TrEMBL record:
Pfam families assigned: Amino_oxidase
Molecular function as annotated in GO: oxidoreductase activity
Family: Belongs to the carotenoid/retinoid oxidoreductase family.
NCBIfam families attached to this UniProt entry: carotdesatCrtDProt, crtI_fam
Designated name of the protein: 1-hydroxycarotenoid 3,4-desaturase
GO biological process: carotenoid biosynthetic process
């Protein structure tokens, strides 16, 4: 018998993990990607002639990638060079207000004691215990589950785990829960930032997102050569197993015949027939009919759901001095609540944003002196997901740039303003890259306890059409999107086996 033919739309990390597993199992896999290289949101751009990451910069939950590579007879070490980080990030509120978080919670507690007092250090240790309990409660019952629901979550937890589910405060907001642990507003602001990892506001996101604190304590790694090496390695492994990749070619329509997905039609008119289709696009593209009218019914309408955060980013290579940058740095604004009200309620760029700076030539230790050094930088601020509307305007982005670099200067970081060689990305550019999202980078926002259960699962409403990526379960982020691809591949293989029987 001929191997079943599978078409995967999009070579993002979810599509790549599915392609690798399906090709390893002997299926005939074709991946169609409109960009010129694999990776999706794991992008690389060149600024001043220097390649640098322009998307995710943090590698966590290594076990996800270890399991994926082991499943296809490989090892992660054979294809990627990873360096564990001792310091997770450096945080600043002003020229003399700095705090490093360490991979070792005890070292973080010592740093917090010096920064905010012994009482806050003790509260931090209690917070770590709560974050660890939240993570272990949800790891198998929710994160690994193919299609979670509140009833299913309780069922998988069992009577023994019911108490744990109640103790993780699923109905509380992250901001309120952090107020139980931290009296220093700066620490509350620091740990509230974890909600932005899935594109959400800490004032609306559930307290369960504190599990990200434990995820980082389990390990953060730097990838030698940049994050783009991850999708490149997975694409190479899938190709070695027979998968075909068509780059620079976009899908115009998912073909649905007899109630089943039967292939795709490309923008140049070519049709690729298949026994199943796996869509690694944002589900908003399906909902809005951007892949044809028939797939619109594949997922529920997004009425009443809020898009996740977008961003304005600057990739630049400039001399830096005045602040001892590490690999990951966060410079906080003075009014955190106003920042998220600007983005989610007023639909505008923040009056004063919090700024994330990834210094891609630095590690987790101070270098001698504070400059000047020429660094490859990715600077990022939160933005409203309105890239499919005439906002923000170039003038608004220029004002945002001014306030962003003024805040960095206030915290002691001196660098030249972005010049013409800087690569600037804003919501309109992200909408072009990821149609239907308005530039939202994480699917729907995780606002309210129901939001996590409202993400589509791997099986769509159309037989033969499967879903992967950060806009479906288990959520946004590189490891979660990788898991979504594995869940989709598992569901597809199971359904093919059932059809054969």
């Amino acid at each position: 018998m001929n191997s079943p033919r599978i078409v995967i739309i999009g070579a993002g990390i979810g599509g790549l993990s599915a392609a690798l597993e399906l090709a390893h199992r002997g299926l005939d896999v074709t991946v169609v990607e409109k960009a010129r290289a694999p990776g999706g949101k794991i992008r690389e751009v060149a600024a001043s002639g220097a390649p640098m990451d322009a998307g995710p910069t943090v590698f966590t939950m290594r076990w996800v990638f270890d399991e994926l590579l082991e499943a296809v007879g490989e090892s992660l070490e054979a294809h990627l060079t990873l360096q564990p980080m001792g310091v997770l990030a450096r945080h600043a509120w002003g020229p003399e207000e700095r705090l490093d978080l360490h991979a070792d919670p005890e070292r973080s507690a010592q740093a917090i004691a010096e920064f905010a007092g012994a009482a806050e250090a003790a509260r931090f240790q209690a917070f770590c215990q709560r974050a660890r309990r939240t993570y272990h409660t949800l790891k198998d019952t929710f994160i690994r589950a193919p299609q979670p629901s509140p009833a299913g979550l309780v069922g998988r937890a069992g009577m023994r785990g019911l108490g744990d589910l109640l103790r993780i405060s699923p109905y509380d907001t992250l901001w309120r829960a952090l107020g139980e642990h931290f009296h220093d507003p700066r620490l509350r602001q620091l740990f509230a930032r974890y909600s932005t990892y899935c594109g959400s506001s800490p004032f609306q996101a559930p307290a369960t997102l504190m599990l990200i604190a434990h995820v980082e304590q389990e390990g953060v790694w730097m990838v030698e050569g940049g994050m783009a090496r991850i999708p490149q390695a997975l694409a190479a492994l899938a190709t070695r197993r027979g998968a075909r990749f068509y780059y620079g070619r976009a899908v115009a329509e998912i073909l649905v015949q007899g109630g089943r997905a039967r292939g795709v039609r490309l923008e140049d008119g070519e049709e690729i027939r298949a026994d199943a289709v796996l869509s690694n696009t944002d589900v908003a593209a399906l909902q809005q009919g951007l892949l044809g009218p028939a797939p619109r019914r594949a997922v529920p309408a997004e009425r009443g759901r809020q898009r996740s955060l977008s961003a304005v980013t600057w990739n630049l290579r400039v001399p830096v001095q005045g602040f001892p940058l590490l690999r990951h740095n966060v410079f906080f604004c003075r009014d955190y609540q106003a920042e998220f009200e600007d983005v989610f309620q007023r639909g505008r760029l923040p009056t004063e944003p919090t700024v994330y700076v990834c210094a891609q030539d630095r590690g987790d230790r101070d270098i001698d002196g504070t400059g000047p050094h020429s660094d490859r930088l990715l600077c990022l601020v939160n933005a409203p997901p309105l890239g499919d509307r005439p906002a923000p305007s170039p003038e608004e982005i220029a004002r945002c740039e001014e306030t962003t670099f003024r805040l960095l200067e206030r915290c002691g970081l001196q660098l030249e303003p972005p010049g013409t060689e800087a690569v600037v990305s804003a919501p309109p550019q992200f909408e072009t890259l990821f149609p239907g999202t308005g530039g939202g980078l994480y699917g729907q926002a995780t606002h309210g306890w129901r939001a996590s259960f409202q993400r589509p699962g791997t099986r769509s409403r159309i037989p033969g059409l499967y879903l992967a990526g950060g806009s479906v379960h288990p959520g946004a982020g590189v490891p979660m999107a990788t898991l979504s691809g594995r869940l989709a591949a598992s569901a597809l293989l199971s359904d093919l086996s059932s059809r054969r029987r």
